[in-house]
Design brief:
With 542 residues, the chain is an alpha/beta fold. The chain has 19 helices and 14 strands. The protein has helices at 5-24, 34-53, 58-76, 80-87, 92-106, 108-120, 129-152, 175-197, 212-222, 224-228, 251-254, 260-272, 301-314, 347-352, 376-380, 417-420, 450-466, 512-516, 519-541; strands spanning 234-235, 240-246, 284-286, 317-328, 331-341, 357-360, 399-401, 404-410, 436-441, 470-474, 480-482, 488-491, 498-504, 507-508. The strands form 3 sheets. Strands 6-5-4-3-2-13 form a 6-stranded mixed sheet. Strand 7 (399-401) and strand 8 (404-410) form a beta hairpin.
Length: 542
Amino acid sequence: MSSTPRGRILRGAAGLVLAGAVHALTFAPGPLPDWALAITQILALAILARVTLYAPSARQAWMRGWLFSFASYALGLYWIFISLHRYGDLSAPLAVAAVLALSAFLALFPACASALTRRYAPLASDSTPSRILSGTLAWAALWAAFEWLRAVLFTGFPWLNIGYAQVDSPIAGWAPLLGVHGMAFLAAFVAAALASLWQPSRKSRLGSRHALAAGVAVALAAAGWPLSRIGWSAPVGDPLNVRLVQGNIEQSQKFDPALLEQSLVRHFDLTAMPPAPGAPAPQMVILPETVLPIFQDQLDPRVWEAWRNLAARRNAVIAMGVPLHDRVNGRDRYTNSVMGFDGNTPVEQLVAGNPAMRYDKRHLVPWGEYVPPGFHWFVNMLNIPLGDFDRGAERQTPFAVGGQHIAFNICYEDLFGPDLLPALQPGANGEPGATILVNVSNLGWFGDTWALRQHLQIGRLRTIETARPMLTVTNTGITAAIDARGRVAAQLAPLQAGVLPVSVQGMTGLTPYARFGDKTALALIGLALIAAVGSGRKSRRA
């Protein structure tokens, strides 16, 4: 039966599912070593590029692109099941259905890219070198264009953008210029060019006339090496001594009112720990998202007084993730925030939620932090507290500590590179741009899964794009310090309570990406697409 058309279809489908599953492994889940992630991804994408660029029809290219991507997303995002079922109290069948439905939707984007490539820039075994170059350019440009669309449509969900798997490859050298979407274009181009080398001709499997696209792709990827050695930013001020606190509060206990005091005491004790002998005292202590799982004005003011007094004794600024309730222009306002204070901050300001240092989350999680219109029925099925917040402003003043300027982002906000850029620019009143980035998260929703390592991989790429160090401070892991070149300088093991003392050198200066955001990459993608389609039409007329 395997030799029948149906058998060949089944084998091809199984091969695409396997290739998609391998592709999911390249987003830093752990089974593959770091050096193998980028190579493995290119090989997996090359399989997809081969079977879509040379597909008999656009419809078959669409189906192949969708099947590969569905398998990749379903495996790579399996951890969403844990948040929905174990902690959100959604039944297992519905949680599985939700993950599969999300994966099916996300797979539409690469499927459309594959189908449009086959429609407007098809390849055949006798294609000329220029035709092959135009086809591979079209596939790469359309893939990257749909990655960008996935990042912005319906508030966006760009997790597992193919650029992240290239964070340790030469292609990462392009990040300060083109960002993750430009890296996605280059990775897709290299994969498609590699796929075009294999020709089903009896005379030549690897003919030199097919190597033009591969040569261009390799040259562009290799150019990342010298680009990665450019100093896009420069040190400013003295290094800042920071303590990162990982409380490791089990998610099932975090919002239990009976265990609130236990959680606060653990974080208080970790914050109050004296430094190791000979180590400098921290100038700043950072605690993760929703350290306080209730609104700040629901807490006894005496507790805030104890925290303020601790900041005074340690002569340090304490920054913690807190849901805030305040009133603005006569209306109640609720935000997922980071609040910073020192020993001179009045307790009344802490109770009111309006200290001098405050960051309000801007990019909220649909169904988790705000309810889209018409979907309250779905949220009512879940047991997710603090689920309807107001958005923060686009540009918020970084925290000024020890001569450095710290810009916070919360949870998956670091997934959206352009959202971090306003904080790097000088403020309207002349205040300096951020010299250090900090992400505070509560990844306890996902247990000890690939989500932790995938999130760290995302943070690493943000530092390369912006040439800024980033601190990641999480409830259960991975708490880490990343330097301005994307290297992890120190980290805590996940699912363990502890503190991570680090010295962070602030950086100043703007990379091209920090200045222009995704505009440069989108212009490149658009030009490549126009050139590819135009060349393809010309060659077909010839």
